[in-house]
């Protein structure tokens, strides 16, 4: 009885309310709401208008990432997960979250990319490709080896790669060394002169992406030299140039304390962003880039003392980043989802430092560099932050996540994968 | 008389200066910070997938000879550390004296949740000598 009287009293209000609810259910994209309120990851700090969805949480030690035109995602793993080195992910209902996760491949590695109907993947010693099957998440599981013969390398062994529109495959062959000392990483040891490592390492090697069975020192061509380790390597299809961001050398203070204080060791050298042009020398190991002076300097292993400028005439970077940030991927944004200022600019994933100890570690973010034609047009800015999950990082172990790979989705979203546990974010602009 | 006093003062000055310049012996902590911290980090925890942790480590608490040799010769190749594997490069630290290595290793074996016996300079010397080419 009481209920009836309430209804009589508030009848109109109740029916109005009911009507609104029905309208809401009919006209609002419910799954869109779910994405924003249930699964939106609020832990990343992003510019206004951007938000992130967690695609998958722990797929393995994810390094680089590629997204197919149908939205399927492939991630290379630095360590085998259940015996496999590649994760394949499908979002069936298009809400951003992974619905199917499969694993294949028997080798761990870093490089991954889609070209000409194939999924290319690199271990530390070879680049191979798997034929993609239209409609299927998993490719043909028998890979073909495109390029091999890369020597095992215990530091800087990741063979990240990129492929241009002409079918040229560019592979990062990092140097198994810090600054070409022998023995490596020791106090006051001079650098080897000339550095014998440059013959087979310390540069980018060029191959034919469509030809199987190539061997580095027989069929590959050394495209550029003088690069310590460029895990962040990308062909820019807009301006037809190759670009890379280099891991600068470590431990200036540890090995040359008479020239570099602890503070200087922490803040030097810069991580260099290069436009790579064929045949050029980019300076390693004979030089490094001084972040404060914005100058290329002679390395202390080769007569430098923190004050002597480069006498080898090596190439200058197009931009310099703070020391030890550890650039692990580079992506040129070519889509239209993000605001116009992002178009044709570069995103860089910084893995984060270890070499700033005992001081605070830095990096652990994704930055953006605006471009005009083939060069930066303005200062770099932090785009995505708080991957580490803590405000002060004293040791890399403190970081929950370390960004490692970047990809652009078919809808223009930016995908980021990290390599502590393999979390993947999809960043979109609304 | 003045000459004698001046001489005395001069001698006193250089003697005390000499005493001042004699450094206090390096502690294990100082040695760790100078030679190990960069890679193995301030908390001894290392860097994931790159430099092994020294915390509660069987490599630290185990065989003394193996541990001393790592510092003298460096270490390369795949190793298992607890339930993880590393395949990196540790440079040799053979420019350190027997005393420095003993002090350093004793510090590591008694910190970072490690509880093991000290290592003496003689123990380091013995291993260094056995490694010398005859």
CATH H-level superfamily of chain B:
Cytochrome c-like domain
Number of separate strands of chain A: 29
> Greatest chain-chain interface?
A-B, 25 and 25 residues
Order of helices and strands of chain B: HHHHHEEEEHH
The CA-CA distance between the termini of chain A, in Å, is 50 Å
Give the tags:
heterodimer; A: mainly beta; 4-stranded antiparallel β-sheet; 5 helices; 29 strands; B: 134 residues; mainly alpha; Cytochrome Bc1 Complex, Chain D, domain 2; two-stranded antiparallel ribbon; 4 strands
What does it look like?
The complex is a heterodimer of chains A (430) and B (134). Chain A is built from 5 helices and 29 strands. With 430 residues, chain A is mainly beta. The longest helix of chain A is centred in the first third of the chain and has 26 residues, at 2-27. Chain A is globular. Residues 29-39 of chain A have low confidence and may be disordered. Chain B has a two-stranded antiparallel sheet with strand order 1-4. The A-B interface holds A 61, 78-79, 154-155, 176, 183-187, 250-251, 254, 354-355, 357-358, 394-397, 402, 419-420 and B 33, 35, 37-39, 41-43, 45-51, 53, 74, 76-77, 87-89, 91-92, 95.
Topology:
The complex is a heterodimer of chains A (430) and B (134).
Chain A: H1 2-27, H2 30-37, E1 50-56, E2 62-67, E3 73-81, E4 84-90, E5 100-104, E6 112-115, E7 118-122, E8 126-131, E9 144-148, E10 161-163, E11 168-173, E12 203-208, E13 214-215, H3 216-219, E14 221-225, E15 232-236, E16 241-245, H4 252-255, H5 262-267, E17 271-276, E18 287-290, E19 295-298, E20 319-321, E21 327-332, E22 346-350, E23 365-369, E24 371-372, E25 375-376, E26 381-384, E27 403-408, E28 414-418, E29 424-429
Parallel strand pairs in A: 9-13
Antiparallel strand pairs in A: 1-29, 2-3, 3-4, 4-5, 6-7, 7-8, 8-9, 10-11, 11-12, 12-14, 15-16, 16-17, 17-20, 18-19, 21-22, 22-23, 23-26, 24-25, 27-28, 28-29
Chain B: H1 2-21, H2 28-35, H3 37-40, H4 58-61, H5 64-73, E1 75-76, E2 79-81, E3 84-86, E4 89-90, H6 98-109, H7 121-131
Antiparallel strand pairs in B: 1-4, 2-3
Helix pairs in contact in B: 2-6, 5-7, 6-7
């Amino acid at each position: 009885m009481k209920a009836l009287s309430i209804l009589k009293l508030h009848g109109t209000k109740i029916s109005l309310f009911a009507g609104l609810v029905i309208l809401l259910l009919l006209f609002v994209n419910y799954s869109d709401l779910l994405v924003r309120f249930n699964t939106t990851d609020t832990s990343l700090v992003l510019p206004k208008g951007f938000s992130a969805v967690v695609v998958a949480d722990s797929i393995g030690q994810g390094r680089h990432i590629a997204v197919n035109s149908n939205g399927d995602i492939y991630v290379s793993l630095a360590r085998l997960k259940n015996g496999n080195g590649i994760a394949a992910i499908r979002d069936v209902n298009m809400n951003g979250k992974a619905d199917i996760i499969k694993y294949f491949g028997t080798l761990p590695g870093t490089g991954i990319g889609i070209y000409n109907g194939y999924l290319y993947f690199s271990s530390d010693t070879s680049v191979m490709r798997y034929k993609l099957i239209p409609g299927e998440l998993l490719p043909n599981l028998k890979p073909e080896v495109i390029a091999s013969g890369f020597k095992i390398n215990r530091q800087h062994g990741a063979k990240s790669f990129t492929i241009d529109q002409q079918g040229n495959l560019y592979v990062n062959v990092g140097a198994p060394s810090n600054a070409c000392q022998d023995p490596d990483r020791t106090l006051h040891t001079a650098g080897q002169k000339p550095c014998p490592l440059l013959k087979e390492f310390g540069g980018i090697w060029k191959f034919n992406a469509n030809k199987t069975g190539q061997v580095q020192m027989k069929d590959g061509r050394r495209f550029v030299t003088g690069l310590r380790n460029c895990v962040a390597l990308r062909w820019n299809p807009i301006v037809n140039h190759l670009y890379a961001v280099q891991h600068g050398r470590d431990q200036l203070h540890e090995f040359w304390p008479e020239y570099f204080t602890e503070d200087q060791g922490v803040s030097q050298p810069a991580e260099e962003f290069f436009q790579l042009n064929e045949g050029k020398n980019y300076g390693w190991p004979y030089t490094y880039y001084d972040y404060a002076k914005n100058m290329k300097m002679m390395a202390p292993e080769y007569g430098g003392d923190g004050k002597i400028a480069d006498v080898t005439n090596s190439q200058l970077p197009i931009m310099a980043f703070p020391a030890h940030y550890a650039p692990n991927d580079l992506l040129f944004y070519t889509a239209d989802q993000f605001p116009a200022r992002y178009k044709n600019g570069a995103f860089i994933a910084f893995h984060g430092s270890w070499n700033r100890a005992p001081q605070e570690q830095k990096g652990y973010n994704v930055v953006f560099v605006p471009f005009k034609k083939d060069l930066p047009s303005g200062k770099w800015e932090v785009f995505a932050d708080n991957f580490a999950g803590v405000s002060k990082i004293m040791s890399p172990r403190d970081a929950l996540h370390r960004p490692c790979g970047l990809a652009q989705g078919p809808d223009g979203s930016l995908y980021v994968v990290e390599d502590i546990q393999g979390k993947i974010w999809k960043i979109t602009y609304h | 008389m003045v000459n004698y006093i001046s001489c005395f003062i001069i001698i006193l000055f250089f003697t005390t200066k000499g005493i001042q310049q004699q450094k206090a012996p390096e502690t294990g902590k100082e040695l760790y910070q100078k030679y190990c911290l960069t890679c193995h980090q301030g908390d001894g925890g290392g860097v994931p997938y790159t430099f092994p942790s020294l915390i509660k480590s069987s490599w630290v608490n185990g065989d003394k000879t193996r541990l001393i040799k790592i510092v003298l010769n460096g270490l390369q190749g795949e190793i298992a550390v607890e339930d993880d594997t590393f395949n990196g490069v540790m440079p040799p630290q053979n420019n350190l004296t027997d005393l420095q290595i003993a002090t350093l290793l004793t510090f590591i074996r008694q910190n970072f949740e490690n509880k093991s016996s000290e290592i003496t300079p003689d123990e380091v010397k013995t291993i260094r000598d056995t490694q010398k080419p005859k």
